[in-house]
Amino acid sequence: MKITLRSIVSGAALALVFAAPAVAQDFDKYVALGDSLTAGVEGNCVVERNQRASYPAVLAQQLGIEDFQQPLVQELALSDPLVGNPCLGTVFIPPSTVTVGAISQMGAPLNLSLPRPYDNLGIAGARVRDLIDLIHGNPNGTTVEANAALVLRNVPGSPFDGTNAVTQANILQPDLVSLWIGNNDVLGAALAGVVVDGVTLTPVPAFTEKYDAVNAALGGAGRTLVGANIPDVTAIPFTTTIPGILINPATRQPVIIDGHTVPLLGEGNDAFPCTPVAPDQGCPLPAGTLVTLPASALLAQGIGVPTAAGGTGQPLPDGRFVPPVMLVSGVTLYPNEVAAIVARTNELNAVIAAEIAGAGGVLVDIHAIFEDISANGYHIGGLTLTRSFLTGGIFSADGFHPSSIGYTMIADEFIKAMNSSLGTDIPRPDFSHVLFTPNVPAGGAALTDGGIWGYGMSTWKSLLETAAPAWGLAIQYPEAGRATPQDGGRGTRTVTRGDGD
Amino acid sequence: MRQRLRAPFPRVVLTLAIVGFLSSTPAFSSGFQVMTHGARATGMGLAYAGIGGDPTAIFYNPAGIGWMTHFESYVGLNFLTRTDGGVVGANPYPGAGASTNLDNQWFFFPDGYAVIPLTNELNFGIGGFAQYGLGLRWENPETASTRFVSQNAVIRSLDVNPVFSYRLFPQLSVAVGADYRFSKVQLERNQGAVNPFTGAFVDVAHVKLNSELLSNGGWGWNAGIMFKPFEALSIGAAYRSSITIDYEGTANFIQRLTGNPVFDGIVAGQLPQGEHPVTTSIKFPSSINIGAGIQLPAGFLLGLEADWTEWSTFQELNIVFPDGAAPGLDRITIWQDSWAYRAGLEKSFGQFAIRVGYYYDNTPQPDVDVGPLLADSDRNVYTAGFGYNAERFGWDLGAALIKFKQRSILTAQTDNFFGTYTETGLVLTGGLRLAF
């Protein structure tokens, strides 16, 4: 082989090209993989207004990528009856009720004819396994199958039939992939109030196997992987807004009787057995119990409130799993259940950290970032954002998906992590627009069972039906006025997809 | 000499000083320090700790009054203005290119000094001046991007500083004095909150914190030494102690209506009504000034000086609402000690003199604290002056052009408010000296 000076120089130059730290313009193709948090779901719906504020859309904009395609969905005004999944927002019902209700609804797909896969492949409701296993979408199937049909278009007759999310990502040959998956592997437990390993919590081996498969399938020379981990789902408005003690609806201050606060009543569970003292039919919630937002409607009717404090004495229902397929949803998470969710989240985050490191990727520690926000708030330009429900600015009206502001923060955290780890100089997003621009359509109707916390039973049902993982199980919900620990069914009724109030 | 002791003390000096501090001042020396308290000194780049010889030495180095043999008083008028200043924003907030200007206010404050020889060696002096001041008001305060951090920040002060100087030797003078500092703080900003019906931030209240000048104060002391080994050289050093002032004031919350009556009703129910007590504390730094005056041939006088200010005393700003009307503010400032280097030249033509000077002032403020509340920067300052001084009467004029270095804050910042700050200031000062 004849080695010339020119070849040496060329080789050196080539090495420099690959060795040089990436900069913003080096990323020509970006693909996002994930779940509803990647899709841009807000207020339990995904419509164009929200999708354009999704964190991948913001990130793509900051990368200077103009052709970033998403499975956009039309947003429709409310109709009676609704024709699409309702989008939740804050509504006012005269004369004095502020609650969460439907403000618009999902309509038809707007970008269905795109001849290539979308760049945002976030599938609402997806768990890590779904990025590999979900090769056939079904508009009439489970929630996640229906969402896959929208995002992946892998339905019979489609050129994408038989492809999963990772395959579609590879078709696009991206040089940057973001991967934020695993949230639904723990979130369902919090949303349903049922903590069962293998049912609402994904076991670690199964998670590891699928995450590894995703990583292996995504691996490729010259590709940068940016992965995010799972936030603490026991520290979101859905689980932290309602305290475990009785609150005066008028003053929003704790009710004090005989110098003490009044614990709400619960059913108890195996770790915290309950022996009611008449006339109450439930037991005081132990410290550390989380009461989820759907309890709002029950509390408004006196359920969960001791008789001595003017309530019915009936307990707030605790969720449980009835094998083989029945999930009885509840509104309390006892301390042992909270601990189990936190422990599993930490275990899965350890897997994610190891997988991302093994792939030479960049880890965005969303878990730590949201812990800091929970403790200290997020300060920008003299404004303070918190995790508070409806007024904190970070979360949307469903209590667990971020708002547009929250998604911009997340995109910013991705950029900061990339700039720090890769030496890139990606410009951070401009918050000034999203902070001050109203993010709701005009008008809208209201649900009426929200209670003082503004969260209706119908809201809960809606989000469980659309956003929670598709367990392939039947779901039962507590029904106000019939929740008693003695009735065997715990005052529940079976609700299936499309079942209204 | 004894007759001079009976000379009536010019009350106008203190009266003017007190009235004058009803105006605030921009911070034209490092941090929020103001050093232009004598027209001659201003013309010479404030390199005056080693010169003295007139009543303004009470401020710059009290030992500099040690050789004065007559009752002398000095009344000075200072005009300060910001000729331009503002911030051009950057992402993530207030956004790239978002421009907000500082108000180009004019500030006026007088100084007053008097020196009374008590014996051949012992002199008494008293001065009134404002060593610290801040005036940072943003244009269009109801829409400015800075409004949630600060719309208007004011620190006013008035030092009353009696001193005694004593000549230990014909060539050596020492001095010591007490310093009582009155001060007030005023902060104004808007409060933003998320409108739950829109998910967007809106202005919901205007918050004004205010304390009264004469109701808040603290004691300190100062000292100086000046040595004149021979006619053409004088060397001086001065020290001022730190002074801590615990402010007590009031807070007012004025609701800003958003146009949504439901939300406005919710805000009204949560907004503190009426006046509420508020407290804060500022520890003003100690300082050391070391300088020399060198008489050169052909009527030239050269002043050189290095100043150290212990700005590390300003580590935090805590605002407390004792009645719990609103959450307190705990702001970490972590300032650092700073140095300034000054030089000035005076050329005398008989009783007339012209002066030029320059100084470089390092900012004590770290990047993380630079924001709408206070955006300080290193600065180059160019000065000039002119004066007439007869034995019993004199006047001086001085001017200083302050060019702040452009300062870009693009990474970590306490308020997450990013941008590039610019500022230019001008000081015009004049003084009248009378001796009896």
First-residue to last-residue Cα separation of chain B: 10 Å
| Alpha-carbon distance between the two ends of chain A | 79 Å
Beta-strand share of residues of chain B: over 45%
Count of individual helical segments of chain B: 5
- Reading side by side through the largest sheet of chain A, how are the strands ordered? 5-1-6-7-16
Largest interface: A-B, 33 and 33 residues
User: Major beta sheet of chain B, specifics?
Assistant: 14 strands, antiparallel, barrel
Task: Compute the number of helices of chain A.
Answer: 16
State the secondary-structure class of chain B: mainly beta
Uncertain segments of chain B: 1-25
Specify the structural class of chain A.
alpha/beta
Number of E-state strands of chain B: 22
Proportion of residues in β-strands of chain A: 15-25%
What share of residues of chain A is helical? Answer: 25-40%
Explain this structure.
- The complex is a heterodimer of chains A (501) and B (436).
- By secondary structure, chain A is of the alpha/beta class.
- Chain A has 16 helices and 20 strands.
- Helices cover 31% and strands 16% of the residues of chain A.
- Chain A has a five-stranded parallel beta sheet with strand order 5-1-6-7-16, sandwiched between helices. In chain A, strands 13-14-19-20 form a four-stranded mixed beta sheet, with no helix packed on it. A three-stranded antiparallel beta sheet of chain A has the order 2-4-3.
- The longest helix of chain A has 24 residues, at 335-358.
- The model of chain A is unreliable at 1-25, 444-448 and 480-501 (pLDDT under 50).
- Chain B is mainly β and 436 residues long.
- Helices cover 8% and strands 55% of the residues of chain B.
- Chain B has five helices and 22 strands.
- Chain B has a 14-stranded antiparallel barrel with strand order 1-3-4-6-7-9-10-13-14-17-18-19-20-22.
- In chain B, β17 and β18 form a beta hairpin.
- Chain B is elongated, with a radius of gyration of 23 Å.
- Residues 1-25 of chain B have low confidence and may be disordered.
- At the A-B interface, β3, α14 and α15 of A face β7 and β8 of B.
